[in-house]
Design a protein that fits this description.
The chain is mainly α. Helix content is 71%, strand content 0%.
Protein backbone atom coordinates (compact mmCIF):
# COMPACT_ATOMS: atom_id res chain seq x y z
CA UNK A 1 0.00 0.00 0.00
CA UNK A 2 2.78 2.43 0.85
CA UNK A 3 4.51 1.70 -2.43
CA UNK A 4 1.65 3.09 -4.54
CA UNK A 5 0.47 5.80 -2.16
CA UNK A 6 2.21 8.65 -3.98
CA UNK A 7 0.70 7.56 -7.29
CA UNK A 8 -2.81 7.36 -5.88
CA UNK A 9 -2.62 10.95 -4.68
CA UNK A 10 -1.10 12.42 -7.86
CA UNK A 11 -4.22 14.27 -9.00
CA UNK A 12 -4.67 15.82 -5.58
CA UNK A 13 -1.01 16.81 -5.43
CA UNK A 14 -1.39 18.56 -8.80
CA UNK A 15 -4.46 20.42 -7.57
CA UNK A 16 -6.84 18.75 -10.02
CA UNK A 17 -10.40 18.75 -8.71
CA UNK A 18 -13.95 18.69 -9.93
CA UNK A 19 -15.15 16.83 -13.00
CA UNK A 20 -11.67 16.11 -14.38
CA UNK A 21 -10.62 14.56 -11.08
CA UNK A 22 -13.73 12.38 -11.08
CA UNK A 23 -13.01 11.23 -14.63
CA UNK A 24 -9.30 10.50 -14.16
CA UNK A 25 -9.39 8.84 -10.75
CA UNK A 26 -10.63 5.56 -12.24
CA UNK A 27 -9.26 3.31 -14.96
CA UNK A 28 -12.65 2.87 -16.64
CA UNK A 29 -11.66 4.81 -19.77
CA UNK A 30 -8.51 2.72 -20.20
CA UNK A 31 -10.34 -0.54 -19.60
CA UNK A 32 -13.05 0.46 -22.08
CA UNK A 33 -10.41 1.32 -24.67
CA UNK A 34 -8.55 -1.96 -24.14
CA UNK A 35 -11.85 -3.83 -24.43
CA UNK A 36 -12.52 -2.13 -27.76
CA UNK A 37 -9.13 -3.24 -29.07
CA UNK A 38 -9.75 -6.79 -27.85
CA UNK A 39 -13.19 -6.95 -29.45
CA UNK A 40 -11.89 -5.60 -32.76
CA UNK A 41 -8.92 -7.97 -32.97
CA UNK A 42 -10.80 -11.04 -31.69
CA UNK A 43 -11.20 -12.39 -35.23
CA UNK A 44 -7.46 -12.78 -35.78
CA UNK A 45 -6.57 -16.44 -35.35
CA UNK A 46 -2.83 -16.25 -35.92
CA UNK A 47 -0.60 -13.24 -35.35
CA UNK A 48 2.14 -13.46 -37.96
CA UNK A 49 4.40 -10.53 -37.15
CA UNK A 50 4.82 -7.41 -35.11
CA UNK A 51 3.75 -5.24 -38.02
CA UNK A 52 0.49 -7.18 -38.23
CA UNK A 53 -0.16 -6.46 -34.56
CA UNK A 54 0.56 -2.76 -35.09
CA UNK A 55 -1.80 -2.63 -38.09
CA UNK A 56 -4.66 -4.32 -36.25
CA UNK A 57 -4.24 -2.29 -33.08
CA UNK A 58 -4.05 0.92 -35.13
CA UNK A 59 -7.26 -0.01 -36.96
CA UNK A 60 -8.90 -0.84 -33.62
CA UNK A 61 -7.90 2.56 -32.24
CA UNK A 62 -9.43 4.31 -35.24
CA UNK A 63 -12.67 2.37 -34.69
CA UNK A 64 -12.66 2.98 -30.93
CA UNK A 65 -12.07 6.68 -31.49
CA UNK A 66 -15.52 6.94 -33.07
CA UNK A 67 -17.12 6.15 -29.71
CA UNK A 68 -15.02 8.56 -27.63
CA UNK A 69 -16.80 11.38 -25.88
CA UNK A 70 -15.52 14.65 -24.54
CA UNK A 71 -13.93 14.28 -21.12
CA UNK A 72 -15.93 16.07 -18.45
CA UNK A 73 -13.69 18.71 -16.93
CA UNK A 74 -11.64 19.06 -20.10
CA UNK A 75 -11.14 22.76 -19.39
CA UNK A 76 -8.82 21.79 -16.51
CA UNK A 77 -6.53 19.71 -18.71
CA UNK A 78 -4.26 22.74 -19.25
CA UNK A 79 -3.69 22.83 -15.47
CA UNK A 80 -2.80 19.12 -15.51
CA UNK A 81 -0.39 19.58 -18.42
CA UNK A 82 1.41 22.48 -16.72
CA UNK A 83 1.70 20.45 -13.50
CA UNK A 84 3.19 17.54 -15.46
CA UNK A 85 5.62 19.91 -17.21
CA UNK A 86 6.75 21.27 -13.82
CA UNK A 87 7.25 17.75 -12.49
CA UNK A 88 9.27 16.79 -15.56
CA UNK A 89 11.47 19.88 -15.19
CA UNK A 90 12.12 19.04 -11.52
CA UNK A 91 13.04 15.47 -12.39
CA UNK A 92 15.42 16.63 -15.15
CA UNK A 93 17.07 19.09 -12.76
CA UNK A 94 17.53 16.34 -10.18
CA UNK A 95 19.03 14.06 -12.83
CA UNK A 96 21.43 16.82 -13.94
CA UNK A 97 22.57 17.37 -10.35
CA UNK A 98 23.34 13.66 -9.92
CA UNK A 99 25.26 13.43 -13.20
Amino acid sequence: MREGLADTLTLQRFGIAGALYTKLRTTNAIENFNGSITAYSRNVKRWRSGTMVVRWVSAAIVEAEKTFRRVHGWRDIAKLVSALDELEAKEEAATDRVA
